[in-house]
Model the fold of this input.
Amino acid sequence: MGSYTDLLRTSGVARIIAAQLTARFPSGMLSLAFLLHVEQQTGSYGAAGLVLASTSIGQAVAGPLTSRLMGRLGMRPVLIATLAVCVTAVVAIALLPLTVPLYMTVGLVAGLANPPVQPAVRTIYPKMVNSRQLTPLFSLDASAQEIIWVVGPVVTTFVATQIGTVWAILLAAALMVAGGVWFISSPELGRVRIPRSKRRFGVVLARPAVLLATIVGFLLIGATAAIEAGVVAVFGHGGAEAGIVLAIFAGGSLAGGLFLGHVPIGPWSTARRMFIVFAGTALAAGLMDFWWLSITLFIAGLGIAPALAVLFAIVSASVKFSDTAEAYGWVGTGQLIGAALGSALAGFLIDSSGPQGAFWAATVLAFLGLIVPVIGRRWHPDLRGRDASPIPDTEPVPMQPS
Done:
């Protein structure tokens, strides 16, 4: 843990982590807030699901596009423009009396304009720390983001039920503005400029490590989304059990990220971490009991943040600096599609087979997430003793004043 303390003492690291977490915190709030608000306004969970689907489609499409634009227009202009449009759309959903098609349209706009904070910050990280600190920084980032998914839904539920769904959405919008302004004003965004890529849009996805990270991330997040749906189906919305189990699940991810963050990354690293996720998930599917699910999902969680950290690192080490933002955009899109597919598959199996069906779906997705890096280990970068920083572009990159 001392090395994490040293990492956080590195100039700007603690501030940029806090700023980007605040800017991304609404990601853990808006899906649930939209669901509760649209259902309340229309009386239909189906309508609310359509709005969430539209928003997710927008986010998935926008990920690599807005990330690529940061290399052409600069990080700050893209972040400012997307933040303004996204906040406007989110506030419109909260305040305007819309029909379902209009809710879907505005949700699509909000998704398309989702600020590319995550690709931006992961592009900046290699310029902030030395090569020895980069992999632990990815691990710390992957672990810290669990705060978003644990605290966000709890805050949203409390505000929506005690004050109102409009205020839950407006709170998320306010945090989006505060975190976005804080992140955009960070000096590092002025010091680092992404060079314009000379390759066609989408070519970076053909890099084996990027494709591997995108597919594994798709399967991993799909499995976690199915688990979350299954836990809610087991315990329902009436008590605290579902929230406690999901918090323990996220706590396992946080612990795994912190304790495995310094393990060297070799060709088998992703497969080993995905085996932990698969084993815990498969055990969880055996019994729908509070204590059993708490223990087994804590085990499954131990592999999640470490697996994500490895995926971030192998992408960073496999592409030129000018392609990093787009590469992370594709990885993020894979994860968004995985979340949507995992939730949909779990919902179908819950309806047909009960809550245990969601855990069967999660087990299959986690198993595939294990098999893919086993088969693809020959394309998995070996970073033992190597620098995880991006490949430098051949031409000099001018530094912008902060």
Summary: The mean pLDDT is 83. The longest helix spans residues 324-353. The chain has 18 helices and no strands.
